[in-house]
């Protein structure tokens, strides 16, 4: 996994990465970074696409390294998963995010989405941890969304599925992150404890201003609707992408068009600002697919 992260970091153009520099001591350094207060949770708004109203946010972890500055999660999450430190880090992120979200008053029931790694889901303490954090912070379970990936929902993962089922029975929502990039078995999807499909950024990225056709997005939205799930599109950068997603029936989304991941104060500012002009002004909307 560390190799994969390194590979990916190299592909993205950074020659010397955190992984390169710290192939030996990285785990220890990461463990020390938690009590040292070097981890930080940032929040990216999730909006109702039709109105532009902020309905929630995704919590994303950052490591502010004293020498190297901000280290993105792609460079340390795989290492944290490998060493098991993700259990501590993930619990810390969840608590920080729930504590923060419990104070939000800029929407009716703003939701907080938190990424969960496979290692956490397989930990028998996960369900009691989540319940304790919700109780301690006073965040109603209905306002929490846990984001998992397709691979965590496989048939050979009964512990993970049982954990999700238990939390879902409490009212916690479950989202499948990066949907469409893994190998979900469609025959099982209707029996899985899932409420939301997050349409991977790759499909949003593939939208073009000059075409109204997006077969994969059409299919994911139809699938979600047939199964009583909702959709959230990731990585919306351009107005024409938002317009096309609305035309395809996708209800919510996130991306740089609406706001980058940032401090909670920035999220509140975005949420309290009047929504942007309606996308109906966008030509692509006038001619839906
Ligand atoms: P993800 O959960 O799919 O998060 C979405 C990623 O897309 C974030 O990257 C976000 O900053 C980025 N993004 C959002 N909007 C746009 C856009 O319009 N354009 C582009 N190009 N990118 C956009 P980030 O923050 O670097 O996180 C990367 C991944 O690291 C996350 O992907 C998630 O899998 C993982 N991650 C982040 N925080 C946590 C965490 O607390 N726990 C765990 N287990 N994983 C985390
Ligand atoms: Mg996510
Ligand atoms: Mg995602
Ligand atoms: Mg993604």
UniProtKB/TrEMBL annotation:
<feature type="domain" description="EAL">
    <location>
        <begin position="23"/>
        <end position="275"/>
    </location>
</feature>
<protein>
    <submittedName>
        <fullName>Bifunctional diguanylate cyclase/phosphodiesterase</fullName>
    </submittedName>
</protein>
